Structure formats: structure tokens, C-alpha cells
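Risk register update: the risk of archive-format incompatibility is retired. Evidence:
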Amino acid sequence: MNTPQGSNGPILDTDYGQRLDKVMTFAGATANDPGDYDGTGNPATLFKVSGTVRMRILAVCNTTLVGSSATLEVGTTVTTAGLIAQTTAEAIDVNEIWHDAAPDASVELTSVLANNIVSSDVIQTVATANITAGKITYTCIWFPLSENGQVTV
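Archived output:
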């Protein structure tokens, strides 16, 4: 049995039992920051995955993103937009929920969160241009499928 992850403990749900949060702050004008699209900090690992897990992931914008023509996506090294589709960074505004190509208002149905089976680390990729400011909190809700299934920050 895996122990609950994250500061808020387990999610009491029959499909998912664990939760993690990861806050990403962007300062793409700083060399090798995760917002620097051609720096060594991009792509940035959000969650480390061992074994195989079932996962839902979403992002909530804490501070509006800034970055003319910059794009952002979440996935794995094999499918960089496989978990949250690529969108224009400046379309992600404070309090919006980002789970697909079009960030939404501050209320969203839980049914829109994709169910994914994941067996490699989850990454965030900044493309096209730097994201020079902003902050996002990513939430990963997961359940182990393999005996060694585990997600960590």
C-alpha cells in the first residue's frame, strides 16, 4: 500500500487515492528558468513516475502568464502534449483552470479531466518563446496500477 502524498493527504475516491501539487513560477527572461524555452530548465519535470499509474492532471493559474507567442503543454518526453494540450501561454489567466487547449473559467466539471495511464515522468514544455512571468499550480490525482506504481514531486 502506498502512503498518501502531498500536504493534503489522500483523496477519498474509489478511482484515485493519492494527490500531489507542484507550483511552477515562470521567469523566462532568466537563463535556464523553466520559462526560458531554449534554456536547460525546459522542459521541466513536474512529477516523477515509477511503474505504471492511472492519472488525472490539471492546472490552476495563480498569476496570469506573460509571454508573447509562447505556448505551453504537459505530457511526457514521448508525447509532450499528451496530458494537457498545447495552448498559448497568454490565454492562461489568473484563476482559470487549464486542462485542454482552451483554458476555462474558475468552475469546471470534473468529468472533463482525462483519465490517463502513465509510465514515465510528467513534463511541462514551453515552446515558441519565453514565458516571462506567471505562476501555475499543477494537481496530479493518481492511483498505482503496477506493484511499483508511484508518483513523486
